[in-house]
Amino acid sequence: MRRRSIIGTSLAVVTAMSLAACGGGDGGEGSKTLRVTLVNHVWTENIKKALPEFEKQSGLKVEVTQLGEDQLSDQYNVKLNAGSSDLDVMMYRPLQEGKQFGKNKYLADLSEKAKSDSAFEFGDFQAGPVQATTYDNKIVGLPIITEQEVLYYRKDLLAKSGFTAPPKTLDELKAQAAKVEADNPGVAGFVARTGKAAAVTQFSSFLFSFGGDFVDASGKATVNTEQAKQAYAYYGGLLRDHGPENISTDMSWSEAMAIFTQGKAAFYTEANSLYKNATDPTKSKVVDTVGFAAFPAGPAGSKPYNIPSWALGVNDNSENKDNAWKFIQWAAGKEQALAQQVAGVPGARASVWANPAGTASYPKDLAEANTVSTANGVGHDRPLVVKVAEAREIVGQPIVDAITGKDAASSADAANTAFQKFLDDEAK
């Protein structure tokens, strides 16, 4: 899932960092030259500024290749498939490429290094992101950037309708959305993503909070369980009954966010990583009235996703694994995690979220909502498969059908059959 607000340009930018003079060969065992491949991202810009410190401490020379998302994926596909050893540290998307990389054994097993390093404090990482960077019970990556789903809402509209607090449950969300909508003609009670594939990630929190998931423990499709059918019906019904007039079924985050920030909706469920779109006066008309709350609880409780959007791994064919781990120790360590979060990049370490400095730059209510999300969060927001885009199209169809008033239960049955066939084919 591309976050256009933070990823930046997709044009390839290759940066050779030669910030410390060191000896060594061309990347062989014990080489003093370490090759690190990163994506265009705020995290990357921050880490590049701090690199001289790492190079001075480690005695290593770091060569950074920095690429846009598409170029990064293309390079990995070519080099990893060819068994290339000229990649050492890799920044990758656990939920997009993790299954493929794990299945093909592209990532080195970091379990022993991570768990035996007491100073690194692996136990400080939140459970949800760790779940997504673990494959076949092996730690193959360390999460560096996270996001969670929260509830955006209009404080002024709630107060006008007599509500003293945002909804704590999905039942309350529906009731408050209906009341606020009735009290404010022209304002939708609720808005969210509606596009078949785009909505899947945000729908996932509803699915989990109803007690469902995309697959069960044995890997079988479960998008037609009673819990899943209830979640589809709820999400689609809330948008159909209390969403914007003439609602389209192709909205991604940018279209839904625009409706909210232009003052046309009372509630909006979305990734917390996008919150500045609602608090930036140049983009939003609701700066003074926007509030944030934890994802409302369903029958199974409040279970929003808590995912690592990016992680660091080591190429299993690298001949410089020990030095690659030294970089990860530093870049994913507590000090850098805190510095990144202070700069606005949410991390995966519990200690950073517990540190007042780590949440000082966030609105107070958003920081509180994030704390709930990180504690209860589920480590995925889409099916964990190799062909993620195709899977999202399948499991997203009942969302569209529910919004348009079709039978969500029948649609879920059809989607489950198609999704199971997809899983069977992928397992061959």
UniProtKB/TrEMBL annotation:
Keyword check for rRNA-binding: no
Entry similarity comment: Belongs to the bacterial solute-binding protein 1 family.
Keyword Signal found: yes
Source taxon at top rank: Bacteria
Organism of origin: Micromonospora parathelypteridis
Keywords attached to this entry: Signal, Sugar transport, Transport
Protein name: Multiple sugar transport system substrate-binding protein
PANTHER family in the record: ABC TRANSPORTER PERIPLASMIC-BINDING PROTEIN YCJN-RELATED, ARABINOSE-BINDING PROTEIN-RELATED
Region forming the signal peptide: 1-20
SUPFAM superfamilies tied to this protein: Periplasmic binding protein-like II
